[in-house]
Each structure stands twice: as C-alpha cells, then as structure tokens.
C-alpha cells in the first residue's frame, strides 16, 4: 500500500513493490497483520512531517505482526520462523522490515499483536511526560481508542486513578478497564469535577479541549496532547516523537503476560481496504484497535 501525494484516503494505492530486505540490526517479517494508527493518516495528509519526514511515493504503516523470514547482520536472539510484533516502516504490505520487535506473548493472535507496538510506546511515553504519580488522578480525554485503552490499564497497574471521557456507547468499556467514566459534550467539565480533583490530563482525541484541560489541572505543564497541533498555543506540550520502542515492547510483553493489558480489536480489514480503515479511524469513536489482515 502506497501514496504518491498527500491527501485523503483516496490517494492510497495497492501497488506491486520491490521486496524490502533486512539491514543491519533489522528483521524482515512476512506480515500477518498491520496496526492502523491515527499517525498513519496524519502522515498521509502531510500533517506531522517534522516528526516523520518522508519522501514520496511512500509506503504506509508503522506497526505489524508476523513471521520472521530474514534476519539482518548483527541481530541476535531471533530466528527465521519466530512470531514477532513490532515497529518498522511501510507495514501495510506482504513483507515489512522491523527496526524494533519482540516475540509475541503466548495466546496472542497476530491481529491482536499488531495493535500494540505504537499504542503502548505512546501510552508509556505520555504517562511519563505528564508526570502523574501513584495516588494521583489522571484525566484522559478520548479514552476508548487504542492509546486510551493502554493508558487506562497501565495507569491503573501503577496505582493511578483514571477519569476517562468517551461517547455514551463506550462508558461501560471504560469502566471495565478500571476508569471513572463520563461522556464528553456540553457540561463535561463539571461532570469531571464531580468525579474528583484532576492532577494531570492527556488529550488523545484532538477535539478542541486543551483550554478546559488546563483549567481542570491548573497548569499547562500538567497536560500533554498527541492529537491537537494547536496545543502549544496554550503552553501545552504536543508529544509526537517516539521514545524507546524496544523498551516499550518489553513492557508490553510483561503487562500482557501478567494479564494487566488487553486491547481488543474492534474491526479487521483486508489489506486492500486500507482506505476504509483510515476513514473509520479518522471518524473516531473507536473501542480498542483497528487492524489490517494480510
């Protein structure tokens, strides 16, 4: 899957491309599933090129799971035939090169595994950046998607109280992940206040709530956004550059293996329907993850 110009989902093309090969420190996988992330369509639209510079035409996708079929120079601890999940480039494809990976935890399907890499890295990064501590309360705006699902569970595992906002249909889902839940829309700030004092806040949906999040926390330094490019206008940090993906994958394996992290796959799409997956992802209201099956 590729695009030759920035634009809407219609610029995506299913094309024949040369097979990539694993360079030093990389592995190549036969892709079984690829995660669909908001960053994918933001890059396709040309929104965040400072964090993700690309040359056109470009492939699409960062996350994938699959079977190792080529091991690059200097790589140890992984063999051809291993089932892995991780992050690389141009993962909406039959074959993809990964620069960070981990063996899939037992019991995880390829579709499930493809939904974890970027999501868990992002969740761990922004929890750290916002500085929330055990015993404090974290507000998560737009909490039902992949990153929100991971944030809620990781925060609860660390002894952090979480308030999550989402649509009416996802209230029970948020509660099932251990969050105090409320809907967005008119009056949401007061509904949050009734649930408790907010020590830090994360904007995951980019729905124009930065001003209110600063009001609720009392400090723009206690708010992080991954979705609103206008956040710096309010003194709020926009977090878009990944930290250590190998460390995040190792923590994901630990959490999944301990039964502390599960991100459901809301919908799977054939690879040829990547444009439809982007449309649905951009529309929001996701519960968990969307993935492409190869």
From TrEMBL:
SMART domains: PKS_ER. Residues 7-292 form the Enoyl reductase (ER) domain. Coiled coil: none annotated. The keyword Cytoplasm applies. CDD domains: MDR_like_2 (cd05289). Pfam families: ADH_N, ADH_zinc_N_2. GO terms for molecular function: oxidoreductase activity; RNA binding; zinc ion binding. GO terms for cellular component: cytoplasm. PROSITE patterns: QOR_ZETA_CRYSTAL. Signal peptide: none annotated. It is found in: Cytoplasm. The keyword Heme does not apply. Homotetramer. This is Oxidoreductase. It comes from Streptomyces sparsogenes DSM 40356.
